[in-house]
Amino acid sequence: MRLPVFNRSIALLCIAAAAGLGAAWTARQYLQDRVRQLEANAKTPMVARVVAAYDMPSGTLLTSDHFAVRQLPAALVSSDSLAPERFKELAGSVLAAPLRAGDPILAVHTTRARGSPFSARLGDGRRAITIPVDAINSVSGLLEPGDLIDLYVSFEHQRRRITAPLLQGVLVLATGKATQIAAEPGMARAGGYSTVTLDSSPEDAIKLVAARQGGSITALLRHPHDGRSDQKAVRGDLATLLGVSDKPVSTRTAKVPVIYGNQAARGLPGLRPKAVDPAPVNGVFDLPYTPELASAWMRSPGLPEADDALRPVSPP
Q1: Chain centroid to CA 25: how far?
Q2: How far apart are CA 196 and CA 203, in angstroms?
Q3: Could you read off the pLDDT of 210-266 as tens digits, one per residue?
Q4: Whether 208 and 92 share a structural domain
Q5: Which of 80, 112, 144 finishes a domain?
Q6: What is the number of structural domains in the chain?
Q7: What is the pTM of this model?
């Protein structure tokens, strides 16, 4: 008995139908798995975190353009990762390690950008000189950045002790490492300091160096609105200053001249006594010049180099 012979086209049609059914079943299984995956993800808590918007090398100065937001599983995020509303904590910092796009940006990945140097606070042509706090033996420990002080120098001259103003109205730039005015009284000097940095001109800096080597320096606090200079200085020992000197007073009088008839008038001594400069009262005398305020430049307008936080307000 002969077997029936199937048409070739019918066989190909059956194969195509079987392949279509297999593809449909595969697609149905994929869709079902995808639905189950989405349902599982919907049940997993997700949180938004700041990530790198693109690949960034180390040394990148971070701005808002470098940040992106990505949803990450709450159970997998790092404890020091940042929420989107905290992105400003990273803005302005420098990337310390390279990051790939999508990597969370953590605080440990960044370092703060270095601010402007302390020398930028100096005015044009000004200098900052640091001296040990022991050299200032009057207001040690009480100074704060922004104070104005007068510096007096005491030294020996011709076997006599002289104390005179050296610099007046000197701006205190820093006490130790503190360079800002404290927000609350006493904060700047709470930790103590061993040096004081002062604003000065190059000429005043030379005077201060010479005074430290040849005498002792004393500082007096000055009111920030006081623009007057003092010319007073003292000469002599302590007894002279107190007016209790036991030096004998000279009782010698000038010799009385004898007038002869044959003597020319031009040879006679003057009948009116010569004016004699009064002796200093208790050793106090005026300097032959008026000292200028060392930091008077702060009162001049248009000084962008000066730190406004350290600029005293001029009186109305």
Answers
A1: 73
A2: 19
A3: 988 888 888 888 888 888 888 888 887 777 767 766 655 455 555 666 666 665 555
A4: no
A5: 112
A6: 2
A7: 0.50
